[in-house]
Fold this sequence. Notes:
It contains 15 helices and twelve strands. It is an alpha/beta fold. Its EC number is 2.6.1.-.
Amino acid sequence: MKLIARRLDVVEPSPTLAITAKANQLKASGLDVVGFGAGEPDFDTPSHIKEAAKKAMDQGKTKYTPVSGTVSLKDAIIQKFKTENGLSYEKNQIIVGTGGKQVLYNFFMATLNPGDEVIIPAPYWVSYADIVRLAEGTPVIVSTDISSGFKISAAQLEKAITPKTKVFIFNSPSNPTGAAYTRSDVEALVKVLEPKDIITLSDDIYEKIIYDGLEFVNPAMISSAMKEKTFVVNGVSKAYSMTGWRIGYAAGNAEIVKNMDTMQGQSTSNASSISQAAAEAALTGDQTPVAEMLKAFDKRRKLIVSLLNEIPGIECRLPEGAFYAFPYLTGVYATDGFKSLQKEKGEKSLSKLFCDVLLDKYNVAAVPGIAFGDDNALRLSYALGEKDIEKGVSRIHQMVKDLNK
């Protein structure tokens, strides 16, 4: 008897969580490990948000809420979309879940039928393809690279569309590359999408972590026609350093929201009532902490990219958003030292081999690019202090020097 369901055959454990767990184990054993793996801010949740959670508990707001979220949190989300994005929604078009990941999972479970295709630009967030497979859809991966700024072109999108295409995933700023699309970039994609019967899933989780005055734009903001075909997913985890609070939300087609509500009602029911109160305070309260965190991220961004580009064989572009660097190691992979290492270890994935050795011998945790669909690179989160960034990149530099001996 096969104990495990066949649907799990197509799913891999999250490599980011696995690498972070291993790094934490090594730290617990007393090793000085620099962790570039975790995709979460290192700042504490702002105090006014924590106070709102305490107040909610004191007021007895500790019971079940409607599955799709409290009325007051939905009102805050609606106001957020109207004020910040110029988008208008009704309450039946809003859903709140236990983190953005659950919202995405419920969306695909509610919309995909076996064989439906989902276009996913690569490099991509690790869970997109696996969630699509769990929902019996077919991921269609469209590769981008450092030369294109890790952004899919209108021509690439057009070529990827088939009669089976159901969803196009748009993620800007991006995890893992930090790439962000300009308004003209988005307009070019919309010209392709607007005439088509395709849902655009816009993952806006890094919306507020964007640099150099770049304007945030998603496809729904381009035209009213496109808004009707776009399902927008967001959350409070990244912008407000609330990863552990587990609140994500989405806005879009009311029928999709209704069926996501049904899915959620048979799994987790409502997100934590206390976390919902905290999320409401995050969206409606003082936004100064967001600006302060962004300022720190910007400084770290410039530091890590500058240090990485000093290493022979490594090329790293300056990301426009999020808190990830995605350096290319093609020059390192081409060295005799790395080729000998690959032959010795017998590892097919270049980035996995590099990251395995980097952690085991140099005490630095990074996520291999193969996990995001690009074996040329590594993902380094710079959501850690400047001294740790300098220490960690110095160790990467030392590994590259050792390979060249």
